[in-house]
Amino acid sequence: MTDHAISHGRRSALFAWLTSETPSSRMQARCVQWFLGWLGLARNPLAMLGLAIVVTLILAAIFAPLLAPHDPLAQDLGRRLLPPGTDGNLLGTDELGRDILSRLLYGARITLYVVALVVFTAPVAGLIVGTVAGYAGGWVDVVLMRMTDVFLAFPRLVLALAFVAALGPGIGNAVLAIALTSWPPYARIARAETLTIRNSDFIAAIRLQGASPLRIVIGHVMPLCVSSVIVRVTLDMAGIILTAAGLGFLGLGAQPPLPEWGAMISTGRLFILDQWWVAAMPGLAIFIVSLGFNLLGDGLRDALDPRSGR
Amino acid sequence: MSLTGSTSGGRRAWLSSRSGVLKGGRLLISLAVTLLGLLLITFLIGRVMPIDPVLAVVGERATKEVYDATRASMGLDDPLIVQFLNYIGEVLTGNFGNSLLTSRPVIDDIARVFPATLELASVATLFGVFIGIPAGVIAAVNAGRWPDHLVRLLGLFGYSMPVFWLGLMGLMIFYGKLDWVAGPGRLDIFFDDVVPQVTGVILIDSLLAGNTEVFANALSHIILPASVLGYYSLAYISRMTRSFMLEQLAQEYVTTARVKGLSEWMVIWRHALGNVMVPLITVIALSYANLLEGSVLTEIVFAWPGIGFYITNALLSADMNAVLGGTVMVGIVFVGLNLLSDLLYRVFDPRAR
Amino acid sequence: MSTPLLEVEGLSVRFPTRNRVVEAVRNISFSVGREKVGIVGESGSGKTMTGRAVLGLIRPPGIVEARKMHFDGTDLLALSEREYRSVRGNRIAMVMQDPKFSLNPVMTVGRQIAEAYQVHTAASRSEARLRTLDMLKAVRIRDPERVFGAYPHEVSGGMGQRIMIAMMLIPDPDLLIADEPTSALDVTVQMQVLAIVDDLVSQRGMGLMFVSHDLNLVASFCDRVVIMYAGQIVETCKASELHKAQHPYTRGLLASLPRVDQPIPRLSTLTRDEAWKTEPGVDARIL
């Protein structure tokens, strides 16, 4: 009994610390902010569903070798095009007798790999371009924003197609093409945020203390732009997955025999009228994962950005 | 500003027309810069291409002398800046070179395939507009209740589904299993070239020729790809309509309309939507532009002979001129649509005139 | 006095929020005859919500409760939404604070005014147009034809408010609620707009509920004054007898006004007593 009471008491103390309206340290203030954001997010069941899907994707990717019943590349021509529900092949097999479920699980790794690479490059590049343009102003701003506009003037997929055409097909080049086409919106957001931050009093105070422009941009402007960029990134992840899958579908992304979901749909296309599951299953996987990221992104936006309203 | 005093009114009109010219000039300059950047990107892409354009002309077995001579005659020995200027000149005169695949000028190929894409994107946009706007309005009016959640979920589904997969599933169900619609392509083979080509848009050409049979067949072919594509524009338009509508419903003039004794229907569909339409014009133009992008994959799935189909096929056969020409064209149309949305905004918003 | 135009008894307006219920208006009773009643209070005192509640404009999740809300023999509480619409605009109208926001920016002025007329009559388009032009003249707009075709952003604030008044009075209502009608305007045009309201209201023998934070203005403009504080009516009196006011809040308000005839070195600031919120309000009905 006492045990329970103590743990409860400790929990509520932690809770109070985390929800304090008068944080005593910068660290606590930051924790409070994150915790309140989390509480807001946790109240939203759809966002929680999205989070669950994303976590499942990550777990599936990590534990693919343990979870997959078969080798994703092992062909068994005797067992080709088996429908879902067949013994040993829960989601059926493809035209070479490979287990679709196993391929999907391993495919999660490719999807995550693409998303992670794009997410760690494009937003960073956009953030740098946007904050520098916004803070420097003048011709630097004009030139950088013109560049951004030019990239925005292309439909993303078409530009990515042209890039892949130039660089040659392959998953690395697909990632590069997606990253090259997806940084401009982040630059725009970061610039807009920077413009409002730049003229605030606390930046003026820091400037009066003699901080260098570089220090101000990196130490004070960028951190404040991060949350809106993060929200946008989460919302964009679905788009990244879909673009990557689209490139795969066109045969320009991951090359066979890699179990990339888009490429799997592409082969399934040949059997669409009779063996629909070959194309349907990987598409369903893409759909669920994208939906997960979208739900999470929506929830994050509501929780982190009070201005967006609902 | 006040309306009293006619002299100041005249002066103001003159001032505003001058600022209109200024604005127009600035717009044109920014347009020119954007197009220049666009060409620079495609030019650079063309340069890093692993395919040697000279080899494509002279063939694998040409001697070194022939190779070098051809290379020089193609201008590839000139400094990059000269090559770039030449490239701009070529593009401005509509010369994208010849396509390897069709061995015709790329510009002719594009002129032939573009109407198919426009037809698809236009019908899809109609879907998006006529379903998306009412859906967004209903969601906003019922914010937080089930119609709102339904529209939101439908939109999220649209944002999450690979367009090529949705197309394939649609084909499987509505063409393969139910046989409600026609399959891939724009027309059944025996209807090809039945009606004379005027606009290149079969739905219009068949009506011009008075051939309802062709029209019905074309409709049966377009309905599935257009609804698949339209679903994406629906998702986007309904989401934006909802958020614009929520913003407008909180405005004072909405209260004024209610105070007047107008029915809720009039308050929403006449007063609030009237104001929503202003920013929505931009959204519709943008969604139309985005459909050009979505149409690449949709065209592949439905074997729809449009620009996306053309670019992709060219890409897979390393037909560089066609890829770059197509990309430039799509970019130009994209920029043009953005410009159009800006102009329409001025027409629809009395404050911007 | 005969039965008043509007009689309200025990009106409360509440807004439930996530953590608590905000009580904007607490159990107030008042009446408005064919006279000018000023409702005075600071922002958040519930005066605006009182006006909107009378018009049935409080939308869910807001809650309106009253023991009695009668307008010219009609029980407003019993009206369906459809029936309420024939009262709104037609019998009771409201002029709001800032014409910049209360006029529809994408509709011409003429169309907006004519619409207010056409909703409640079977008038043809040309008839409505004529009436609109008349009404624009009645609010002393010199060039009605031109204003008719103008968009709201093309007119000044003072003219915007005159347009608003024209729009609200065109169906010939019996009661006008004016919610801070001059506070968004330039001081120079405030008086013009007030004079127009005054003229039209007395010409037509209407009732006026004048909501304002400006005690001076209300005292000079209205027949009767109702003072609200924290959602309650704390005092009511004839405008001419305002100097005899008893409630410390009213006295405080009066003391904090600068006076030309009695200059004092420093105006007193208002001190508020928590007890005012709990003591029962005053019944401001005249029956």
What does this structure look like?
The complex is a heterotrimer of chains A (310), B (353) and C (287). By secondary structure, chain A is mainly α. Chain A is 74% helix and 0% strand. Chain A has helices at 2-19, 26-42, 45-62, 64-67, 100-136, 138-152, 156-167, 171-182, 184-198, 201-208, 213-249, 261-268, 277-304. In chain A, helix 2 crosses helix 13 (277-304), helix 7 (156-167) crosses helix 8 and helix 12 packs antiparallel against helix 13. The model of chain A has no long low-confidence stretch (mean pLDDT 84). Chain B has 13 helices and no strands. The two termini of chain B are 15 Å apart. Chain C is an alpha/beta fold and 287 residues long. Helices cover 35% and strands 23% of the residues of chain C. Chain C is built from eleven helices and twelve strands. The N and C termini of chain C lie close together (7 Å). The mean pLDDT of chain C is 87. At the A-B interface, helix 6, helix 7, helix 11, helix 12 and helix 13 of A face helix 1, helix 6, helix 7, helix 11 and helix 12 of B.
List its salient traits:
heterotrimer; B: 353 residues; mainly alpha; globular; disordered N terminus; C: 287 residues; alpha/beta; six-stranded mixed β-sheet; 11 helices; 12 strands
The major β-sheet of chain A equals: none
The low-confidence runs of chain B, each spanning 5 or more residues with pLDDT under 50, are 1-17
Query: Which word captures the global form of chain A?
Result: flat
- How many helices of chain B? 13
Cα separation of the termini of chain A: 44 Å
The fraction of residues assigned to DSSP E strands of chain B is under 5%
State the order of secondary-structure elements of chain A, H for helix, E for strand. Answer: HHHHHHHHHHHHH
Assembly state here? heterotrimer
Derived from helix and strand composition plus strand pairing, the structural class of chain A reads mainly alpha
If you compute it from the alpha carbons, what radius of gyration of chain B comes out, rounded to the nearest whole angstrom?
25 Å
Q: Mind describing the biggest β-sheet of chain B?
A: none
Beta strand count of chain A:
0
